[in-house]
Amino acid sequence: MNIRRYLAYFLDFVIILAVLYVIAAILPGNDNIVILQNEMNASLSSLLENEIGFSTFVNRYAISYHTLMLNAVHLNVLTLLVLFLYYVLLPLKTKGQTLGKKMFKIKIVATKGELTKLKLLARASLVNGLLFTALSILLLYTSTGLSYFMLVSIIGLVQILFILINVLILAFREKNKTIHDKISYTNVLERSDDNEKI
User: Fold this and answer.
1) What is the pLDDT along the chain (198 residues), one digit of tens a residue?
2) Which sequence spans correspond to the domains of the chain?
3) What are phi and psi of 33, to 5 degrees?
4) 46: Cβ–Cβ under 8 A, 6 or more apart, which residues?
5) Which of 120, 87, 115 is nearest to 8 (CA)?
6) Percent of the chain residues topping a pLDDT of 70
7) pTM exceeding 0.90
8) End-to-end CA distance of the chain
9) DSSP one-letter string for the chain
10) What pairs with residue 110 in β-bridges?
11) Number of other CB atoms surrounding residue 119 within 10 Å
């Protein structure tokens, strides 16, 4: 079942990216975003051509990145909303299934009590980017330039490490239970008409 769990996670990730891409394509463009992306690319080119040192590059890139994120905050808020709808409300309404889980015939179940919004929110916060996105938005207004860039980078690395640890746990443990399953009092089971297999 672990391979189905990996594939469902990947499919859900692709679906979210597609939805966010469509939303970004529909929204009116922001000229500042293009200008800031060009500034970031110019800084990288200057570094690669040895025109500037690494610390100068990081400072320029960090300031441009922070300004870019301020100009694109509406996209981050929409991302947060899409993640919440897809990973919290959808499974709540579909008996523990996202589209990926439905396709691979697995579902999220509560190990204690009922499957609730809070349990699904805990899961989504830990492995689906909800917490990372929320913290990124909060940090936009509480830090600047280099400090924002460093904090968001660290949080992103922690998110990636957490996901990798969970992947390794699934790969090498017989029990089908990850860290985020334990924290959120949930588990992923095979979907069956007559019974559920762990």
Assistant:
1) 588 989 999 999 999 999 999 998 888 877 788 888 899 999 999 999 999 999 999 999 999 999 999 988 999 999 999 999 999 999 999 999 999 999 999 999 999 999 999 999 999 998 888 999 999 999 999 999 999 999 999 999 999 999 999 989 888 876 778 899 999 999 998 876 545 444
2) 2-30+72-190
3) -65, -45
4) 52, 57
5) 87
6) 95
7) no
8) 9
9) -HHHHHHHHHHHHHHHHHHHHHHHHHSPP-HHHHHHHHHHHHHHHHHHTTSS-HHHHHHHHHHHHHHHHHHTHHHHHHHHHHHHIIIIIHHHHTTS--HHHHHTTEEEEESSS---HHHHHHHHHHHSSHHHHHHHHHHHTT--HHHHHHHHHHHHHHHHHHHHHHHHHHHH-SS---HHHHHHTEEEEE--SS--B-
10) 186
11) 23
Tokens standing for 51? Answer: 């025109």
